[in-house]
Amino acid sequence: MKKLINDPRAAVREMLEGLADVSPHLALLADENVILRGDLPEPADRKVAVISGGGSGHEPAHAGYVGEGMLTAAVAGDVFTSPSVDAVLAAILASAGPAGALLIIKNYTGDRLNFSLAAELARKEGIPTETMIVADDVALRDIVARDRRRGIAGTVLVHKIAGAAAEKGLPLADVARLARSAASEVATMGIGLGACTVPTAGKPSFELGENEIEFGLGIHGEKGVRRSHIQSADKIVDQIVDTLLTDMGPFGTRSVALFVNGLGATPPMELSIVARQALSVLRARGCRVAKAWVGNFMTALEMPGCSLSLLPLDEERISLLDAPSRAAAWPGPGDIAERRNNVMSAHPAADATPETSAPGPVSTQLKTVVDAVADALEQAESHLTELDSLAGDGDLGASMERGAQALRALPSSAFSTPETLFVAMANTLRRTIAGSSGPFYATALVRAARRLSGISMPDTAQWGAAFADAVHSVSEIGGAKPGDRTMFDALSAALDGWRQAQEAGETGERSWQHAAASAREAAKATANMKPRLGRASYLGDRAVGTPDGGAVAVAIWMEAIAEVLRASAIQRASA
Question: For 332-375, how does the pLDDT look when each residue is reduced to its tens digit (9 = 90+)?
Fold first, then answer.
């Protein structure tokens, strides 16, 4: 277990101290794990206090939602453990006045017992106190009665509605009514891709196979209601949304708010993919999604996975969700457009490829070469990914495969002359190959196209001059030199091999074969070089021992071209 903690038993207190240190609008009780608003007036002047909490490990819940317009106080228990009665009572006494307090409780036995008993003791102290339960986990709809379901991420929306109502100055009965109404209609379902590790346990709470997921996760690292094989994000979202709408019944057909919540280890990229499909499915099912939020709102430590919540909306709820809040973790009103705003890109005239163009004398050969290069790069995808993962960000294989697919999609008009082909290749590769490789290849191809402008059937010297221009352009724009451990090592060695073969009187086909062999040897040699440019340079000596992926990619496509030229020469000789 690797965690940035000191003593696991002190982790919750130290977390709250760090939060209070950087949040001047908050205060921390000296003798209890309670965060409360630091701007509260004297008790007699206080509005209804809205208090929630539970076990820690759900950050930013619950302390992140303390602030004007949301929670008045949050009570933190140990990780995934209900806070004590004394802690909850201390929160009530510290934050409430004659207007009273509303306790928002997630539906877990420990939370219900401790918060409810604290409410009884607060009433004995003369503080009007109401309690309400959030039980929004619809994954349990076929297993337990509705009032026994767990309280999960939909609780945050209840916090906001109750907090805004209290900030308006509404009496306790009305604040409780609005909160209970929202809690009765909000529906949530989650999925987990893996487990989390409680600091005091030191090991994951359960194990999943490489291709397994859990449907119906809670927020305490527990297993779901069923285990399934991993599916695409869209298929997973389809199942969740269908379950939510089935449970909500007629509520699901009106205006709703969508709450896409990460469980702690799911990156924003994946949460946005989930949100995209959820919006698409909901709209297709006749729902008007008026508000949406995407992010980590109620987590389960570092658990990978997410949940979706739906809350039916009316004008009153919309007003309360729109009301301002100073709670640091509340993301704002969540307003979204009725549909995605797509704007067409403007492309420069140089991008245009003639729709019709007569084939030239080398069109067939050019098409054969491009197909061979595409084949070679696709077959090398996993190898290039592995090499790049060891010394870079691991995207080279996928980028080159996308480039290969783009080359296959070039129109026949692109192959009319070498110039039109190189321009078309430059335009498509600069868009499809990620990172630095795309601009390098695009620049090299533009330079080669310029050298061959107006030449429909280049001779060996003209091909060589175009290749030299292309190689030099890579060094010019990137600053690489031989020995820097980049793709330029393979390119410069290939150019030297070409020139040596030409000086020895070799044919163009044989010269290219020499060039490809030189590129291959140079790519192998990069394994013994300390990188001086690019992302691999950040690794220093740790990159030594693995050849540079960009250099290997150069060798791969050069050898593919060499094989086409070899076969062509054999065919001519036997004709």
Answer: 999 999 999 998 877 666 555 544 468 889 999 999 999 999 99
Alpha-helical regions (H) of 452-575: 460-478, 487-503, 508-525, 549-574
Q: Which domain holds residue 492?
A: 349-574
Residue 544 has phi, psi (to 5 degrees) of -65, 135
529 near 481, Cβ under 8 Å? Answer: no
Place of tokens 């802690």: 87
Q: Same domain, yes or no, for 396 and 504?
A: yes
CATH code for the domain of 168 = 3.40.50.10440
Q: Is 7 exposed, middle or buried (0-12, 13-18, 19+ CB in 10 A)?
A: exposed
Q: Are strands 212-215 and 226-229 parallel, antiparallel or unpaired?
A: antiparallel
pLDDT at 205: 76
Q: How many domains does the chain have?
A: 2
474 and 373 in a single domain? The answer is yes
Claim to verify: residue 168 and residue 296 sit in the same structural domain:
yes
Return the bridge partners of 256, or none: 289, 312
Considering the candidates 220, 383, 472, 514, report the single residue annotated as catalytic: 220
One-letter amino acid at 63 equals: A
Q: Are residues 92 and 224 in the same domain?
A: yes
* CA 448 to chain CA mean position, Å: 38
Q: What Å distances lie between residue 431 and 242, 420, 436, 450, CA to CA?
A: 37, 17, 11, 20
DSSP element (H, E) containing 241: helix 233-248
In three-state secondary structure terms, 131 is strand
C-alpha distance from residue 172 to each of 15, 38, 157 (Å): 31, 21, 18
State which amino acid sits at residue 406.
Answer: A
CB 116 within 8 A of CB 131: yes
In angstroms, rounded to a whole number, what is the distance separating the alpha carbons of residues 525 and 538? 19
Same-domain status, 368 and 238: no
Question: For 52-108, what is each residue's pLDDT tens digit?
Answer: 999 999 999 999 999 999 999 999 999 999 999 999 999 999 999 999 999 999 999
Establish whether 159 is a catalytic residue.
no
| CATH code for the domain in which residue 383 is found | 1.25.40.340
Residues 19 and 94 in one domain: yes
Residue 316 host element (H or E): helix 315-322
- HSE of 407, CA atoms in CB hemisphere, 13 A: 29
What three-state secondary structure class fits 12? helix
**Could you tell me which residues come within 8 angstroms of residue 60 by beta carbon, excluding any fewer than 6 positions away?**
296, 297, 299, 328, 329
Phi-psi category of residue 238: left, alpha or beta, with phi > 0 → left and psi -120 to 50 → alpha: alpha
Q: Is residue 467 domain-shared with residue 414, that is, in the same domain?
A: yes
Which 3 state secondary structure label does DSSP give 6?
coil
pLDDT band at 445 (very low <50, low <70, confident <90, very high): very high
Question: CB within 8 A of 352, min separation 6: which ones?
Answer: none
Radius of gyration of the chain (CA): 32
- 433 and 312 in one domain? no
Torsion of CA 420, 437, 474, 483, to 10 degrees: -150
Element (H, E) at 538: none
